[in-house]
Specification:
This protein has about 600 residues and is mostly beta strands. About 0% of the residues lie in helices and about 40% in strands. It is built from one helix and 63 strands. The strands form 19 sheets. A four-stranded mixed sheet has the order 1-2-3-63, with no helix packed on it. Strands 5-6-7-8 form a four-stranded antiparallel sheet, with no helix packed on it. A hairpin with a 4-residue loop joins strand 21 and strand 22. The chain is globular and about 80 Å long. The two termini are about 25 Å apart.
Length: about 600
């Protein structure tokens, strides 16, 4: 009789704890502590990821799950030239295309991508552009202008399949060599909005229109061969992989669907994993592999979305980064300060508009609930972002009274009480603070001292160089010698700047490059920071969150409640956001915490049932 070792080539090991690496794949072991047999399962799942910066559909895509690209599309009200880059965690702005258009074809990688065809306006175009990782340049024109093109391949060996014009659907296939397009083998029937996968000489064309087609064809570089069909007919589906192993997700079937199917080289199998949100027109071109892809943006019927969902077929269980609810503050407030981390926090000051008074109240968080702490010596609102820890916090500036009067006061918290510290030279109303209780910098203020910077040594304040822009109530992260500030008001700013302890350097703009983002909160370091909430002119209050890597901003998973003038602190991967004010219901006691993406082996207990 064959043994497990004869069949699998591995022993059934007796272990006191489960293995923590992928060497366990395909292995059964006995966990003697739990008294059960276990093994490692390959699972399929979608996880929520950071949204794209600009909601849209009918765009082009390229690249992989950790180096993706999204470009063009329709933002409702019209075609877009915007490009966004994905790093596996968030989306950042890339270079704009030369021509705004929608319903395009796209293929390639993040640093060598192609966009072709589509609608700049009522008519279709033959225009092609190539992306080098930062900017677009003109490429060779398609032989036949069209939209809703199926695509596959890379910049120097690309494929455009079918598509449609105002006159109808097409059988046209064209090859791209990085310079020009030439005719390839015609598709067996007129098709548009199909999904592509693979290379120029080994490609799949999956589904499409007219109707919701189940067809699946393979291309060898000159001719097409019919393969086994999809289980669910669909058009405008998103794909990943190649001709041997592929995945498709979403699309019209005939209504917008969440359904996902995988291809093993012979058959399509309907996956138990589905998109959280039914959507279509997410790009159509291949992104990543059959085991690691994503579906971003798209049309949800009705309306468009900015959501991103990552697809993984893996021995790991991936839980996407997300905000979740913490215990509520005891007192709703806005314009408050905060210090510490999401497991040991303190918030202080602020204002409760229904009461109409500035607050001296502080509250402490122990990882489970908020409890009232000692009062500030001076009731203060818009009292900066705060800095330090829950047992060594610093509050500086703000304003008090009615009519309000800005102040220069600093207060220090030692874990049990607040004591007055040194007074600054300038008013710092709504200052953005970086550093610690004994080595801090207060950056910016409500005008007229909106760009002033002063440093604190635990006793006294010293003037430093001005910020490159005037702002207050923005995000701040880092130390006194390596800090960063971003956004702020009023009006909302799109600026950022880095501080080295002496000088400021202007940084890149936020993801809201036109209208800015003020009243936002944040934390982290100069090279790894996160911000959330705020407002744009209108005003429009935001759930949006973003990260900063020392150079660029990228999107992060959003908060549940749109608000501004929040208390926020923590680390880049464990931000908390407390209180704030919403457009409709006023001061809030809501608190949310951010937890970064986690990965764990998909270990299952073997049972007899």
């Amino acid at each position: 009789m064959s043994t497990y070792k004869n069949l699998i080539g591995k022993d059934v090991n007796f272990l006191t704890t489960d293995p923590d690496n992928a060497q366990a794949e395909g292995q059964i072991w006995y966990n003697s502590t739990a008294g059960v047999f276990k093994d490692l399962i390959v699972g399929e799942a979608f996880s929520s990821a950071a949204p794209i910066g600009t909601a849209r559909y009918t765009f082009g895509v390229a690249g992989t799950q950790t180096a993706g690209l999204l470009f063009a599309g329709d933002t409702l009200p019209g075609p877009s030239a915007l490009t966004e880059e994905y790093n596996g965690s968030g989306w950042a702005n890339g270079g704009n295309m030369s021509t705004a258009r929608r319903s395009v074809g796209g293929f390639g990688i993040q640093t060598a991508a192609v966009v072709t065809g589509g609608n700049p306006g009522p008519s279709v175009t033959t225009a092609t552009e190539e992306y080098d990782g930062s900017s677009w340049t003109g490429g060779g024109a398609l032989g036949t202008g069209r939209r809703n093109i199926g695509t596959a391949g890379i910049l120097t060996a690309g494929l455009a399949i079918g598509g449609n014009t105002p006159g109808g659907h097409l059988t046209n296939v064209e090859h791209y060599n990085g310079t020009s397009w030439t005719a390839g083998g015609a598709f067996p029937s007129a098709v548009s909005a199909s999904a592509g996968a693979g290379t120029q000489t080994a490609a799949l064309s999956i589904g499409g229109s007219p109707g919701q087609r189940t067809i699946n064809f393979k291309y060898d570089g000159s001719s097409w061969t019919a393969l086994n069909s999809l289980n669910t007919g669909r058009g405008n589906t998103q794909s990943g992989g190649d001709s041997a192993l592929a995945v498709v997700m979403g699309g019209y079937a005939p209504s917008v669907t969440t359904a996902t199917e995988t291809w093993d080289g012979t058959n399509w199998t309907t996956s138990s994993a589905t998109l959280a949100t039914a959507k279509t027109q997410m790009g159509g071109g291949p992104v990543g592999s059959s085991t690691a892809s994503f579906g971003a943006g798209g049309y949800t019927a009705p309306g468009i979305t900015a959501t991103t969902e990552e697809w993984n077929r893996s021995i790991n269980v991936i839980t996407g980064g997300a905000f979740s609810s913490m215990s509520n503050l005891n007192t709703a407030r806005w314009g408050l300060g905060g210090a510490g981390t999401k497991s040991a926090a303190i918030v202080f000051g602020g204002r409760n508009p229904p009461v109409g008074q500035d607050l001296a109240l502080s509250e402490q968080y122990n990882g489970t609930s908020w409890s009232e702490g000692p009062d500030l010596n001076t009731a203060t609102r818009v009292c900066g972002r705060g800095t330090g820890t829950s047992t060594a916090a610093l509050k500086h500036g703000g304003h008090s009274g009615s009519p309000s009067s800005p102040n220069k006061t600093a207060e220090e918290y030692n874990g049990s009480s607040w004591a007055n510290g040194g007074a600054s030279t300038n008013n710092h109303d709504g200052t953005m603070q970086i550093g610690t209780q004994t080595a801090a910098a207060s950056c910016g203020s409500n005008p007229p001292t909106g760009a002033k910077t002063e440093e604190y040594n635990g006793t006294s304040w010293t003037a430093s160089n001005d910020m490159p822009y005037s702002a207050y109530m923005g995000s701040a992260s880092g130390s006194q010698t390596a800090g960063v500030v971003f956004g702020g008001g009023y009006p909302a700013k799109n600026n950022s700047a880095e501080y080295d302890g002496t000088n400021w350097t202007a940084g890149n703009t936020l993801l809201q490059p036109t209208v800015g983002q003020g009243g936002n909160g944040g934390s982290g370091t100069q090279t790894l920071a996160i911000g959330a909430g705020g407002y744009t002119p209108g005003p429009i209050y935001l759930t949006a969150a973003f990260t900063y890597d020392g150079t660029n901003f990228a999107t992060a998973p959003s908060m549940a409640t749109a608000r501004q003038e929040v208390g926020a602190q923590g680390a880049n991967d464990s931000l908390y956001v407390a209180g704030g004010i919403t457009q409709s219901t006023g001061a809030q006691n809501l608190t949310e915490e951010f937890t970064a993406e986690t990965t764990a082996l998909n270990i299952k207990t073997i049972t007899t049932s």
